[in-house]
Amino acid sequence: MNKKKTMQDKMNFQYFLLIIPGMVIFTIGVILPLLLAFRYSITSWDGMSVEKEFVGISNYINLWKDANFRQAWWFTIKFTIANTIVQNVFALLFAVALDSGIKAQKIYRTILFIPCLVSAVIVGFVWLKLYSNVLPELNEIFGTNINFLLFGDGKTVLSGLVIANNWQWIGYWMLIYLAGLQSVPSDLYEAAKVDGANAVQRFFSVTIPMLAPAITICVVGITTGSLKVYDLLVSSTGGGPGRASTSVIQMIYSTAISGRQYGYGSAMSVTLVFILLLVAMVQVKGLKSKEVQS
Amino acid sequence: MKKKLLSAILCSAMAAGMLTGCGGGADDGGAAQTPAAEPAAEEEAPAEDAAAEEAPAAAEGEEVTLTVLAGQSTTDAGIEDMIDAALAEKYPNITLEWECTGWDGEFHPKMQQYMQSGLPDIIIGKAQDVNTYASQGLLGEIDATYLDRGLDAARENVTFDGKTYGLVYNALYQGVYYNKAMFAENGWSVPTTQEELQAIVDDCNAKGIVPFASHMVDTWSIGNVTMQFMMNDVFNNTPDWGDKFRAGEVTFADDKAAQTAYSYNKLIFDNTYPETFSTEQTDCDARMVLGEAAMKVSGSWSIQNFLDIDENFDFGIFPFPNQTGDSKLIFEPNIAIMTSAETAHQDAVNCVLDVLSGDKELAVEILDFTKTASMLKDVVPTFPNPSQADIDEYASKGMIVDVTLGNNQLVWGGFQEENAADIAAYLQGDISFEECLAASDARVGSSSAQ
Q1: Which of A75, A93, A131, A185 has the fewest CB atoms within 10 Å, measured from its CB?
Q2: CA distance B240 to B237
Q3: Residue-wise pLDDT tens for chain B (450 aa)?
C-alpha cells in the first residue's frame, strides 16, 4: 500500500513538473495581467501619469450609468447571438453536404476554408469595398435597387457585419463538424435505417447526438470569439456609423488608450472577462450534459 | 525509469528554453543599444565644410541606430525613405529604425506603451502632441540651432512652460475646397456668410448638383470639420473657450456658438451624398474631382488625392463661413518632430534634426510629396497648388488661424474623437441633438491632456 502511494506521489510530482512551464506562461500571460487590470480598475489612472489614485468601486458603478457602454454590450450581444446561430447552422449544413459523398468535395472544402486564413482586418476592408463600391455596381448593371450599403446605416450595419464574419468563419467551424461527422460509426446509421428511421430522423437522432462534442467546441468558440470582436470592426465600420457597431472590446480600447482613462477601461475589461467566463462555463456545462446523455 | 528520465529532460529543456528565450532577448537589446550610445556621445568629428562645422558631435562617430516612432497622416507614408536617404548622405553612421503608425489610430497607444518601457529617440507626431507629452516630462527640449531654421509662427504651440519641445516641419490648411470651374459656370462667388453659403447650396440643389462631398464613414473627418467650425464660431470669439468649459463657465448645452458649430454637420449631411456613411476619403475626393460635388470641407490631405486623380483639377479654398462673417482659414502645423528627454544618443538625434531642418532639398521633396506647406525658412514647395493663391490672399489679410489653439484645449483622443461619434449618431438619428451636446458636456474630464 505504501509502495503504491509512493508511486502515485512520484507520478504526481512528474505531472507537476510537466505543467510548470505551462503554468509559468499562463501566470505571466494571463493571471498577472488580469490581477493588474483589476488593480487599475479601482484607480483613476490615465495610463500616463505616475499617480494612480484609488477610487474604490466607483469605476464599476459608473459603468452601469454609461449609456455608451450599455450600447456597446447590446451590439456585442446581438452580434454574438446572430453569429452563434448562423455560423453553427450553416457550418453544420455544409459539413453534412460535404459528408454526403458529393463530387469535388475537396474543392468545396478548400473554397469554404480559405476565407478563415485571411486576416480579419483584410476581411473588413474587402467587405467595406464590396458594400460601398462593388455590389452597388450590380444595381447599375442589372437595373435593380437593392440596398447594398449595409455599413452606412445603423439599422443595417449589424447584418452587414454578420455576413462578413460568417463568410470568414463558416468554413473553419465546418471542418470541425466534418471531422465529427466522419467519426460517427456507419453502423449506427444502418441500425437506425433498419429501425425505419428516415433521413431527418437519422440526422436528429444519430448525427446530432454524436456531434455533441463538436457542437460544444463550436458553440463556445463562436460565442467567445464573437464577444471579443474587434479587428473586423476596426477596418470596416470603425464602430460606426455613430456608435452603432461599437463592440465592448473596441470601447475598452478607445476608453483606456485613446481616451486616457486606463482605470475606467480596466473596469470594463474586468467586467468583460467575468462575463466571458460565465458564458463559457454555462455553455460548457449545458452542452457537456448533452454529451453525457448521448 | 526511462519515462522518468525522459520527463525530467523534457521539463529541463522547456524551462531552459524559456529562460534563454527571455534572457537572450534582453541581452541582445542591451547589446544593440548600450555600446553604440556611449561612443556616439563621446566622439566628436572634425567638420568638413561650413555646414558641417555646426554639425553635432556624432557626425562621424561610430555606428548609431536611433529608434523613431512616426505617427503619420495618410499623406506622410513614404517620407521615411526620403529622410533615410538624406541622412545616409550626410551622416552615414546614423541609421533610423522606423516604426510608422497612423497618427489617428495607433500613435497614442504606442506612445503609452513606450512610456512604460522607454520612449524612442525621436517621435514624429503633430504639434498638439507636444502639449500632451511635454507636460509629462517625456520630451527633450529642441536646440535653438534647429528651431531657428523654422518659422517663428511655428513655435508658439509647441512651447510648454517656456521651452520648445517640437520642431514643426510642415503645415496643412483646412477649409472648404471648391471646384473653381463649377463656381465660375454657375456664377457663384466665394461665400463669406452663412446666407451666401446657403444660397450656393440652394442653387446646387435646384440644379441637381451635390453641394458637399463628404466621407462620414471616417468618424475622424466629422471630428476634423467640427473643430474647423468650432475655431471660427467659438474660439474666434472666445479663445479660451476650452479652459472655460473645464471651469464650468460654458457648456455645449448652453453655448449657442458651440451648438451652431455642431449643427453645421447637419447642413453638410443634408446636402451631401446619401451614402456618405459608406464613402471613403479616396472615393469622396474622386467624386469631387470628377465634378460630382461643388465643395468639400477638408484639409490639405485631400490635395494629394485631387492631383493624383487629375493633375489639372482647378480648385480653391475658403474658410467655412461662420455666423459673424469673419471666418479665418484654418492652419494646422502637421509634422512635429519631438525627441525623448532620456535619449542616450542626443548628439545623433541632433544630427537628424540638423538634416531635417537644414536640408532644403529634402524639405522640398517631402513637401512636394505630401502636398503641404513649409514651416521652414526659405523653403518653398514646387508642386502646383491651385489653392495657393487663395491661401496667400487670406495670409496677406491676416485671416489665418492656428487650429492648435483649439486642439490643445479640447484634445483629439478621448474628446473630439468621441464627440464626433456622437455627432455621427445624431446625424444617423440614433440620439437627439440635445443628447449629443449632453454627451460632450459629460466628457469634460477627458477634454484636456493634463
Answers
A1: A185
A2: 9
A3: 555 555 555 445 444 444 433 333 333 333 333 333 333 333 334 434 444 445 555 555 678 999 999 998 878 888 999 999 999 999 999 999 999 998 877 888 888 888 888 899 999 998 888 888 888 888 999 999 999 998 887 787 788 888 999 999 998 899 999 999 999 999 999 999 999 999 999 999 999 999 999 999 888 999 999 999 999 999 999 999 999 999 999 999 999 999 999 999 999 999 999 889 988 899 999 999 999 999 999 998 899 889 989 989 999 999 999 999 999 999 888 899 999 999 999 999 999 999 999 999 999 999 999 888 888 888 888 988 899 889 889 988 888 888 988 988 998 888 999 999 999 999 999 999 999 999 999 999 888 876
A149, B4: Cβ pair inside 8 Å?
no
- Position A213, amino acid: P
CB atoms within 10 A of CB A220: 18
Cβ–Cβ gap B217/A238 under 8 Å: yes
Q: Which residues contact B360 (CB under 8 A, 6 or more apart)?
A: B376, B378, B379
Give dist(CA B257, CA B252) in Å, integer: 9
With the C-alpha atoms ordered B218, B223, A71, A120, is the resulting torsion angle positive or negative?
Answer: positive
How far apart are the C-alpha atoms of A153 and B429, rounded to whole Å?
10
Cis peptide before A241 (omega within 30 of 0): yes
Amino acid A237 reads T
C-alpha cell at B179: 471646384
Sign, CA torsion B172/B176/B178/B184: negative
Give chain B positions within 8 Å (CB) of A255.
414
> Alpha-carbon distance A276 to A256, whole Å?
19
Give the separation between CA B148 and CA A13, rounded to whole angstroms: 70
Identify the DSSP state of B45: P
Determine, for residues A21 and B14 on separate chains, whether the beta-carbon distance falls below 8 Å: yes
Q: Would the CB atoms of A48 and B18 count as touching at under 8 Å?
A: no
User: How far apart are alpha carbons B11 and B9 in whole angstroms?
Assistant: 5
Cα A70 to Cα A52: distance, rounded to the nearest angstrom = 26
Alpha carbon of A105: minimum distance to chain B alpha carbons (Å): 37
CA triple A253-A256-A258, angle to 5 deg: 75
What ipTM, to 2 d.p.? 0.79
The CA distance from A237 to the nearest CA of chain B, in Å, is: 7
- Angle CA B255–B410–B302, to nearest 5: 105
d(CA B237, CA B222) in angstroms, rounded, equals 22
Residue A216: Cβ-neighbour burial (10 angstroms; 0-12, 13-18, 19+): middle
**Rounded to whole angstroms, how far apart are CA atoms A98 and A115?**
17
Owner of C-alpha cell 514624429: B124
- CB neighbour class for B353 (10 Å; exposed up to 12, middle 13-18, buried from 19): buried
pTM: 0.80
